[in-house]
Amino acid sequence: MSFDFSKLLSVAWGGWTTAWPTELLALVWLAFLASWVGASFWQGRTKKQVMTLESQRYRLPILVGGILYTPWVAQLLGWKPLWVLGNTGIYIAAVLSAAGIAFAWWGRLHLGKFWSNTITHKEDHRVIDTGPYGIVRHPIYTGLIFGMLVTGIAIGLVTTILGAILISLGMWQKGRMEEVFLSKELGEDAYGAYCRRVPMIIPFLSPR
């Protein structure tokens, strides 16, 4: 008995990802995921990191949000979009989502070998406060949260909107945990002073 991959593909690539131009939004995020995972090997040596059990405080909402964000959840539930933006609105959303991703990539490239998918203290770790890190303390989260919220609203499904909100909350929680960790590791005088000077995630807001 042979396995029918077309059925699996129809489940994974269905719902809002099958119609143009909303399909464009899916392609934007697939391109991001492929490039992000591909670059995950470029990072420095880890000196210390947050325990796995403790990291579930941010991993869980991101995981649940990611599941809700997939097209097959709304398809399975039979839910329809709350609104339809039209082709022009979707194209604008795609550009804004790509801009958020580009900002996140700027942050990752500027961070260089100090980047990690988890909360870690890298060898020779120091406070980076230039480039995008002079605008916000977590430019990667800023860009991804912005892009995810724009995409979720553009799709107009309750599941994508809730998914974007949960992912955003998870990233905010991760950012908070990261700051407590780095303040201890790099010193309150260094990282704490940086936190008091630069906004966390939303540009131009008061720090902290």
UniProtKB/TrEMBL annotation:
The chain crosses the membrane at residues 20-39, 60-78, 90-107, 144-172. GO terms for molecular function: protein C-terminal S-isoprenylcysteine carboxyl O-methyltransferase activity. One of its GO terms (cellular component) is membrane. Pfam families: ICMT (PF04140). InterPro entries: ICMT_MeTrfase. Keywords: Membrane, Methyltransferase, Transferase, Transmembrane, Transmembrane helix. It is a multi-pass membrane protein. It is found in: Membrane. GO terms for biological process: methylation. This is Protein-S-isoprenylcysteine methyltransferase. The lineage of its organism: Bacteria, Pseudomonadati, Pseudomonadota, Alphaproteobacteria, Hyphomicrobiales.
